[in-house]
Design brief:
five-stranded parallel beta sheet; 34 strands
């Protein structure tokens, strides 16, 4: 951090007095600038402004950058670039392992260049929470947590040991052990500082995380969003993040939620409104009297789903509700009074009891909370909201419609078919289209919210009292995001009713929401596949893209935890809850949805009586002490990692092979073949290796050649520390649609020179061994979905030199640049189809040989061997990105910068 004496803004560096004498510390005072433009800035932009002022060194951050932010109202429409240095970095284990692998690899590279390898160390606090590894192998039993954790450690011992080595080898890195909770909930309840006091220097907390739902923390008034692992590494190593100064959508909330409406209904409604408005690359800031009416947990639920509505952030400034939540979650009174004093002194606190200064926003939206109705989203996208009352009609429309986001094309004559089978070979069971086979209370989006968690418990209780029971072939599970949820569910006496309905706790982690749903019982799986049943999963998650939740559930609906329980009991999504009974009571009467649904008063009373500060304090007091299995993991104390060449989990990647101190300069593309030709909406779930490793895949072949039994394959996510496996799993999604295959779905492509149909990996290796470049053609929103660094690293290892698309998702585009791949956009109104490109051509992209001849957003011509040529925009959006490209990638740039400083 820049010392105050060297800072261009040292004149506004001032003391924050304590009410009883003395001082909390010193800070850079925005009011002391006496600039009326600042009073009109959105609160989220004030956080960017304070960071720029505090880090203003005249090089990484300049006075001109600060002026751009102050003048936000005029500059933000012009897509100006600003640097941002977040206060800390947040990782989970799937994305965290490759980050620690890269740091370890960078230490080796620094060593080989003759530099000081200790320079490779996080310069800001890094918190890594292990939450992505636990799978629902065992469900519906009292000992599920213990059994699943045992299996988690067996599968991931090597990765966990590596992360434990990292927490000892690197300074400034806290690793929260497995079984503690979900990263975003742990961040909300424990890790978030809200305001930092760093040796007497006060500043707002801000965070970037290698998980797109890092935005959950925006509900606490902490500016945070998801970035690729590649950007996170740069932020850790003191590099400013280069970002476009965002527009801010002001979203006014008024009124209050009606009885029976949950925070999940609200977030699904907000998601649909914001998707329609178009908020990609923007901040959304919530304001208005309605904000004061919703709890902090509800705000966090709304902020969590920012990636689903496409915004960089969904921000709620700090107010009295925030301070109450900080006290509830066990933050000390002294800390909370410091937070309030600092934010009030720096005009970053909202007090809804005082008249509001009008702030300026780029555009305005309004929602009356009283207009929100119960709903779900699906069957394949989070923003396809369906009001509960329309669900049955919508389901029938999906069965009828052609295959797509809202269609399964099931012939009319087979829509009512009933498949009878013996569950586990002994119990009569049946499935139809729309039968629920997975019902999961999962995901930080909802498990951090006591009102919906206790609401689910009340639904289970009412159902039990009426004699209703979930069918045994529905795979039910409950995975809280922290131990606090378990404490209040037990304290309230509601966990026993959830257990009776099969919602036993299965572990503390993401589970079903990220596809760690475990296997379906064999007889259920066979009944689905042999009869082509469109089976359903209902989950309280935030993503429901096809193939993500489970390979055998083609319909996946996002719903609140109480609705998950209700659908599990009904056993189908093909139901009108208003008109049709969900079951028959023990005395033979029809039971309707309304009979088991709790009122808002009932829920509020249970929350009030059972969610207590002591639960948070005791849970988090124990968190870093870990558990016995974690504590027994033995790790070496060396600063340089000893790579094990036989390991199939942790492997030294080839990024720095042959690296010298001189940058290689920009590269064009000559006579490249098209490896893949895609349409619209190719997500990182399609590109990046995810889920289980298919036995017929190149990754499986690699593992079997190394003596790994198929039962020990584990998931791609768990093997993200091995580049050999990840390269083989890139574009290995079973649902991927590549136009070169003329309608066939799956992870294959055509090797153009030979005409052979090969796996994508085998085709890429064939091109590579012949010294031939490859490119990818794509449509709109290429790379949408979770921020995944392997979605950029994988294609780079396959030899892809450029991606030409109609548009890119924000993080994915910057990750491609970070890995040295050129992102290009077709001109407006053009794409591969309108230009008559089939993907069988060869492509040449001439770029200047000197980086000084390139500028952000430059147009260039792409030529093909068929004589067709067209103009594209090169999507290097900032000067910093051009510097990364010149160095062959962001990591190479950082190593050379650090080595040169010696």
């Amino acid at each position: 951090m820049v010392s105050a004496s060297e800072n261009a803004f040292k004149g506004i560096f001032t003391s924050l007095p304590k009410p009883g004498g003395g001082e909390f510390g010193k800070f850079y005072s925005l009011p002391a600038l006496n600039d009326p433009r600042i009073d009109k800035l959105p609160y989220s932009i004030r956080i960017l402004l304070e960071s720029a002022i505090r880090n203003c060194d005249g090089f990484q951050v300049t006075k001109a950058d600060v002026e751009k932010i102050i003048d936000w109202e005029k500059t933000s429409p012009n897509q100006v670039e600003i640097p941002f240095k977040p206060a800390r970095v947040l990782l989970q284990d799937f994305t965290g392992v490759p980050v620690v692998v890269d740091l370890a690899c960078m230490r080796n590279a620094m060593n080989k260049l003759g530099g000081d390898s200790d320079k490779i160390n996080p310069l800001v606090p890094v918190d890594l929470v292990i939450d992505h590894s636990v799978q629902v192998d065992i469900a519906r039993t009292e000992n599920a947590v213990h059994e699943n954790q045992k299996l988690e450690f067996e599968r991931n011992k090597e990765r966990f040991a590596f992360l434990k080595w990292g927490s000892n080898a690197f300074q400034n890195m806290l690793v929260v052990p497995p079984g503690s909770g979900i990263v975003h909930q742990v961040n909300l309840e424990y890790l978030a500082r809200v305001v930092f006091n760093n040796e007497g220097l006060l500043y707002p907390d801000s965070v970037v995380g290698t998980d797109s739902h890092t935005t959950m923390i925006d509900g606490l008034g902490v500016a945070g969003w998801g970035v690729g692992g590649i950007e996170a590494e740069a932020a850790m190593l003191g590099q400013p993040m280069s970002m476009v100064l965002p527009g801010v959508v002001g979203f006014k909330l008024s009124g209050k939620l009606l009885d029976g409406v949950t925070a999940t209904d609200l977030v699904l409604t907000v998601t649909q409104i914001l998707r329609k408005h178009g908020v990609v690359g923007k901040f959304v800031e919530f304001y208005g009297a309605g904000v004061g009416e919703i709890s902090l947990a509800d705000r966090a639920t709304i902020a969590n789903m920012s990636p689903e509505y496409g915004a960089t952030m969904g921000f709620f400034p700090v107010d009295k509700v925030t301070l109450q939540y900080l006290k509830l979650t066990g933050r000390s009174d002294e800390t909370v009074s410091m937070i309030e004093a600092y934010l009030r002194a720096n005009n970053m606190f909202v007090d809804y009891s005082e008249p509001q200064q009008e702030r300026v926003y780029s555009s305005y939206l309004h929602l009356d909370l009283g207009d929100v109705v119960p709903c779900v989203s699906g069957p394949k996208r989070p923003h396809d909201r369906v009001p509960l009352k329309d669900m049955k009609d919508d389901w029938h429309s999906c069965l009828d419609s052609k295959v797509g986001f809202k269609g399964f094309a099931v012939p009319k004559e087979t829509q009512e078919k009933v498949v009878k089978f013996l569950f586990k070979g002994e119990e009569p069971a049946e499935l139809k289209h729309g039968s629920v086979v997975i019902a999961a209370i999962t995901s930080c989006t909802n498990t951090s919210n006591p009102s919906v968690m206790l609401g689910a418990g009340l639904v289970a209780k009412k159902a039990c009292e009426l004699g209703l029971k979930v069918k045994p072939w529905v795979k039910t599970s409950l995975a809280p995001g922290s131990g606090v949820a378990t404490k209040y569910l037990q304290e309230s006496g509601l966990q026993k009713y959830l257990n009776e309905q099969g919602f036993n706790i299965v572990g503390y982690g993401c589970t079903t929401c990220i596809g760690n749903s475990g296997d379906l019982e064999k007889t259920v799986g066979d009944a689905i596949t042999e009869n082509d049943i469109v089976a359903a999963a209902v989950l309280s998650g935030n993503r429901n893209f096809e193939g993500r939740v489970h390979p055998l559930t083609r319909a996946n609906y996002l719903a609140s935890p109480p609705l998950v329980v209700a659908y599990a009991i009904a056993g189908t999504v093909n139901i009108d809850f208003d008109k049709e009974p969900i079951g028959v009571s023990k005395d033979g009467k029809d039971v309707y949805f309304r009979d088991i649904w709790p009122s808002n008063e009932e829920v509020a009373e249970v929350v009030q009586n059972n969610v207590l500060p002591e639960m948070f304090k005791s849970t988090y007091k124990a968190i870093t002490t870990g558990n016995p299995v974690w504590n027994e993991l033995a790790v070496a104390a060396e600063k340089l990692y000893s790579w094990d060449p036989t390991s199939t989990y942790i492997h030294e990647p080839p990024y720095f092979e042959g690296m010298t101190m001189d940058p290689p300069g920009p590269h064009g593309v000559k006579d490249a073949y098209c490896l893949l030709n895609f349409g619209n909406s190719i997500t990182t779930d399609h590109i990046s290796p995810a889920g289980s490793i298919n036995r017929d895949s190149p990754a499986a072949k690699y593992l079997m050649e190394r003596g790994v039994d198929s039962r020990q394959f584990n998931s791609y996510g768990s093997r993200r520390g091995n580049d050999e496996i990840m390269a083989r799993g890139t574009f290995a999604n079973i649902r991927i649609l590549n136009k070169l295959l003329n309608g066939e779905v799956g992870p294959k492509t055509i090797h153009i020179p030979s005409g052979e149909k090969l796996t994508v990996f085998d085709a890429a290796m064939k091109y590579k061994s012949a010294g031939q470049d490859t490119i990818i053609l794509a449509g709109d929103e290429y790379g949408s979905g979770s921020s995944r660094d392997w979605a950029a690293k994988g294609p780079m290892l396959l030899g892809v030199k450029a991606v030409i698309a109609k548009s890119f998702e924000r993080i994915h585009r910057s990750n491609l640049v970070g890995m040295g791949i050129v992102p290009l956009c077709f001109k407006s109104g053009e794409d591969a189809d309108t230009l008559g490109l089939t993907g069988h051509e060869r492509y040449t992209i001439d770029l200047p040989s000197s980086v000084s001849d390139l500028r952000p957003g430059q147009d260039i011509t792409v030529k093909t061997d068929t004589g067709k040529q067209f103009t594209c925009t090169v999507r290097f959006d900032t000067e910093v990105e051009l510097a990364y490209f010149n160095h062959g990638g962001i990591l190479q740039y950082v190593i050379r910068q650090l080595a040169a400083k010696q």
